[in-house]
Design a protein that fits this description.
Helix content is about 35%, strand content about 20%. It is of the alpha/beta class.
Length: about 220
């Protein structure tokens, strides 16, 4: 979560994808929150799920904000310094992997824990498709076209990422977003979640995966 996302969380609360991450983490779990940023998600894991959380964050200012929210933080760049998931019940990657040079390697390092929970934006969302149909690939401060994204995922490539890192998908959730024409037809809002479940490739803003490591074959 970049400073922009931290400001959005301050103003609007956690995003739908982070609510999905919360629901995927077992109550009372020992959690490693990779890329905890300003600590909004970690603080919610502690307050709402009764978890103990260690955050990892490479930005010292963001780490300071997380600590002000009661989160223990280790300042570290996981791509440079590595990741040790031993002793944790779950490793959380909340909108982090798309910002990394080698997301497969970092996710693979989480195999030391029995559960990894990942959220990634869905670049096949209808709003992104609309932009491409108009011949645009904007670079923005946040969202699907965040200028700091190094990788772009669809539902299918999110599953491929998990497989390549040595995980199997055991549960899948989707973060909803406004439907086409919803601003003109507010009644559509009541259909948002069932339609997202029916057509996640088109309508889910983010994919949230619960992963278990696959045992290596002898």
């Amino acid at each position: 979560m970049t400073p922009v996302y931290g400001a959005l969380a301050d103003e609007h609360g956690l995003a739908a994808s982070h609510r999905a991450l919360l629901a995927a983490v077992p109550r009372g779990a020992r959690v490693l929150d990779v890329g905890c940023a300003s600590g909004h998600l970690a603080a919610a894991l502690i307050a709402e799920r009764g978890c103990s959380v260690l955050g990892i964050e490479r930005d010292e200012a963001a780490a300071g904000e997380a600590r002000s929210r009661g989160v223990e933080v280790d300042i570290r760049d996981v791509e440079r310094d590595g990741l040790d998931a031993g002793g944790f019940d779950a490793v959380v990657f909340g909108d982090v992997l798309e910002h990394l040079r080698d997301p497969v390697a970092v996710l693979r390092a989480a195999r030391g824990a029995p559960l990894a929970v990942v959220s990634v934006p869905n670049v096949a969302h209808w709003t992104a498709r609309r932009a491409l149909l108009r011949g645009r690939f904007p670079r923005e401060e946040h969202g699907l076209f965040d200028r700091t994204h190094l990788h772009f995922f669809t539902r299918a490539t999110a599953h491929a990422l998990a497989r390549d890192a040595g995980f199997s998908v055991v549960e899948e959730r989707f973060a909803p977003a406004p439907l086409p024409l919803e601003s003109r037809l507010p009644a559509l809002r009541g259909l948002r979640e069932p339609l997202v479940r029916r057509a996640p490739e088109l309508l889910a803003l983010q994919t949230v995966l619960s992963l278990q490591p696959v045992e290596a074959r002898p």
